[in-house]
Amino acid sequence: MGDTNRPIIGLIVAYTNNRVIGNKGQIPWRIKGEQRRFKELTTGNVVIMGRRSYDEIGRPLPNRFTIVVSKTANYEAENCITVGSLTEAIEYAKENRPGENIYLSGGAGIYAEGLSLADKLFITEVDAVIEGDTFFPEFDESLYTKTVDEQVDGEIPYSYVTYTKIGK
């Protein structure tokens, strides 16, 4: 019997058909409304990200507790701390932000390490092939139940998809 009310560890990402998540330190697309799900899910919760992802945003996200994983930099701001590892970030969140969901929000290193730790993957599948230099890692889809939550048409269509780890 699992505790259905326990906070989840979610991984949240948008990637293209060729698994691109970034190019030269930026998200290489701008799609109106595409980031709505990120805001809806993460508001009031914990967001864990790597240093380069934090640098791209440039500030803690409003109405969320941000944990930056970095071995070299130290960010301190309201609702923002820095720790040295993903494991340390998750432990900090569980101990200090009980009841809040934890969202792993990039970049590639956090995703690669966090895939095995996440209960759910909240993926925005951008229906395009876009050039980039940073990619989301391959994962074994057979370990998950896949749900297409919403499909959005437009100049660049995208889908909100949730992968729930089987047994979670």
Report on the structure:
This protein is α/β, with parallel strands linked by helices and 168 residues long. The protein has helices at residues 36-42, 51-57, 86-96, 108-114; strands at residues 9-16, 20-22, 46-50, 65-69, 80-83, 102-104, 120-126, 134-135, 144-152, 158-165. The chain is globular. The strands form 2 sheets. Strands 5-4-3-6-1-7-10-9 form an 8-stranded mixed beta sheet, sandwiched between helices. The chain has 4 helices and 10 strands. 19% of the residues lie in helices and 32% in strands.
Compact summary:
With about 170 residues, the chain is α/β, with parallel strands linked by helices.
List the helices and strands and how they pair.
Layout: E1 9-16, E2 20-22, H1 36-42, E3 46-50, H2 51-57, E4 65-69, E5 80-83, H3 86-96, E6 102-104, H4 108-114, E7 120-126, E8 134-135, E9 144-152, E10 158-165
Parallel strand pairs: 1-6, 1-7, 3-4, 3-6, 4-5
Antiparallel strand pairs: 2-8, 7-10, 9-10
Strand element count: 10
Largest sheet: 8 strands, mixed
Q: DSSP strand (E) fraction?
A: 25-35%
Report the total helices: 4
Main-sheet strand order equals 5-4-3-6-1-7-10-9
**Average pLDDT value?**
93
Distance between the termini: 10 Å
N-to-C series of helices and strands: EEHEHEEHEHEEEE
Helical residues, percent: 10-25%
Radius of gyration, whole Å? 15 Å
Structural class: alpha/beta
What are the segments in which pLDDT stays under 50 over at least 5 consecutive residues? none
Tell me the overall shape. Answer: globular
